[in-house]
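REQUEST FORM: STRUCTURE PREDICTION
Request ID: SP-0412
Submitted by: Lab K.M.
Chain count: 1
Length (residues): 64
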Amino acid sequence: MPRNALYASIVLVLAVTAAVVSFVEGKWFGVVWILMAGVASNMAWYYVRKDRAEQRARAAAERG
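STATUS: Completed
RESULT:
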């Protein structure tokens, strides 16, 4: 897993945890944490897909 994807996944877990804590305490600020979790999830997915595409491109260049 690429380093940026790992960092984004850590932010995702922390944002979800913060959202749960906020909602348990009755604060609506948890909505902001949910939005941040969505962005972090998209970033993690983007970096994983980017790394896979780069690996495929390198493999294709080596083969051909």
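NOTES: The helical segments are 3-24, 30-63.
Reviewed by: T.R.
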